[in-house]
Amino acid sequence: MLVGVGGLGVGAAAVGCGVVGVLLPTVGYRLAVPYGEPSRTTCATCGVPLRSGTAGWLARRCDRGHRLGVPWWVTASLAALAGALLGAALGAVAVLPVFLALAVLGVLLAVIDVACHRLPDSLALPALTVTPVLLGVVALTTGQWADWRRGLLGCLAVGLVLTGLVLLPGGGFGFGDAKVGALLGWYLGWLSWDTVILGLVLPWALNVPVLLALLAARRVRWRTKLPFGPALLGGALLSVLVTTG
């Protein structure tokens, strides 16, 4: 069992992630577009152009007052919860800030996937590129090169499994799922192979009750394809909690 960071450390992780989470709704709103389309530049409700520059990506309402994206407290709460759970599970380790950054990115990806059934390359590919560098810096300072190598293998293993599912006819998976899965594989592999395996299994266990609840509420039909990103991300977080607890 890893050493905990204590109540103060867990609180700091939660607050830090929550503060960044406040900024996510409009970013998710602008990136939640069909594949191949540029980021959103107008309000979907009234058509008014969105502000340019940084202010346009952070403003929570358009110039006519329509809210852009989900309420800020939704992303802030999810990010804060993920940060607190990771802080408590991983403890005072050098890699914790990198995991917290992934948690915030995961909230953003989940919001986008729910909105448009897509995990954009503009987020997944840069994260995949920078992750081995960030984890390499941690390994350089701590000597955890065995964890880095296992993370690389975890990335390849999860990516290959999900890519295989994407290629199956009628599977309902997209290459965005495979890319985000490979990204998560880096972090799950850093911890252990048990974490990798659970991270592959748990998403299906999470999706089943969601599907049943939506069916009971008559919000979907049996053939409806649910976005897999939230379950993939939630399963990864749960696997970390289970294997480090």
TrEMBL record:
Q: Pfam families of this UniProt entry?
A: Peptidase_A24 (PF01478)
Q: Which GO terms describe its cellular component?
A: plasma membrane
Q: Which UniProt keywords apply?
A: Membrane, Methyltransferase, Transferase, Transmembrane, Transmembrane helix
Domain Prepilin type IV endopeptidase peptidase, first and last residues per copy: 101-198
Q: Name one GO molecular function term.
A: methyltransferase activity
Instruction: Tell me if Isomerase is a UniProt keyword of this record.
Output: no
Residue ranges annotated as transmembrane are 12-32, 70-90, 96-116, 123-145, 151-175, 187-206
Gene3D superfamilies from the UniProt entry: 1.20.120.1220
Gene Ontology biological process: methylation; signal peptide processing
Q: InterPro entries per the record?
A: Prepilin_IV_endopep_pep, Prepilin_peptidase/N-MTase
- Name the family: Belongs to the peptidase A24 family.
Please name the PANTHER family in this protein's record.
Answer: PREPILIN LEADER PEPTIDASE_N-METHYLTRANSFERASE-RELATED, TYPE 4 PREPILIN-LIKE PROTEINS LEADER PEPTIDE-PROCESSING ENZYME
Write the protein's name: Leader peptidase (Prepilin peptidase) / N-methyltransferase
**Organism for this UniProt entry:** Micromonospora pallida
